[in-house]
Amino acid sequence: MPGARLTQEERRAIAAGLTAGLGYGEIARQLARPTSTVTREIARNGGPSGYRADNAQRATVRRSRRSRASAPRVPEGSASTGDGRDPAAVEEYARQLAELLAHLGMPRMVGRVLACLYVTDCGSLTAADLVQRLGVSPASVSKAIGYLEGQELVRRERDENGPRERYVVDDDIWYRAMLASAQRNAALAEFARGGADLLGPATPAGARMAEASVFLELAGTDIVRAVQRRRRRQPGGAADDQRGR
């Protein structure tokens, strides 16, 4: 069933599909699974040329045993709120979200920290909470938080109950992240314009730089406009419209 772990038979079907030269989407349709599930399964078990069903099954069993053996106490601010949700299912969803973020290029520990924060109702955890939930060192958490702050995906605030800091994901973190991306595009566009002037617009290299500059500037502008349109539809969302201009 969708959302459940892949079975050994499904893994054999994936291996057979790869051998037959099928694409990930076709394999997923045959299994009635999301393409992202098949993509992640293959990516973390040897890739399309190295995927072996039996090896993938054994690796999954080992990961499951390690997870059960090291499962930490559910800390303050966790996804278990007594509202009928299955904590194990929420934990598995957070793990899959972290895997997806890693597949899309985010550092693995950063993705784990962001996913852990994102599935909490309160949207905030202390460093100690994260260390306990993820079973990692404080230094690993600190480094991941620094990265997320740089991307404007997380902010710090003082814990009302003591001297500790809490790390917070706001409801609008993706708006802020998109605007930060637009700002980076603007900086790249300006740098590319300088390269075009230096190399000369009549040269192939200069023309390439000029085209990159135009594209990056337009892409950044489109991102800002899309974010602003969306935020104006949200109650009280217009206050940040000037961010990124």
Short note summarizing the structure:
The chain is mostly helical and 245 residues long. It contains 11 helices and 3 strands.
Head-to-tail CA distance between termini: 46 Å
The tally of helices reads 11
Number of strand segments: 3
State the secondary-structure class: mainly alpha
Report on the biggest sheet: 3 strands, antiparallel
Number of domains: 3
DSSP strand content? under 5%
The CATH class of the largest domain is Mainly Alpha
Order of helices and strands: HHHHHHHEHHEEHH
CATH overall fold name of the largest domain: Arc Repressor Mutant, subunit A
Descriptive notes:
By secondary structure, the protein is mainly alpha-helical. The chain folds into three domains: 63 residues; 82 residues, Arc Repressor Mutant, subunit A (Orthogonal Bundle); 68 residues. The protein contains eleven helices and three strands, in the order H-H-H-H-H-H-H-E-H-H-E-E-H-H. The chain has a three-stranded antiparallel beta sheet. Strand 2 and strand 3 form a beta hairpin. Helix 6 runs antiparallel to helix 7 and helix 7 packs across helix 9. The C terminus is likely disordered.
Can you lay out the helices and strands and say which pair or pack?
Blueprint: H1 8-19, H2 24-31, H3 35-43, H4 47-50, H5 53-70, H6 87-103, H7 108-118, E1 124-126, H8 127-134, H9 138-150, E2 155-158, E3 165-168, H10 173-199, H11 204-232
Antiparallel strand pairs: 1-3, 2-3
GO molecular function: DNA-binding transcription factor activity; transposase activity
Pfam families: HTH_38, MarR_2
Domain HTH marR-type: 104-162
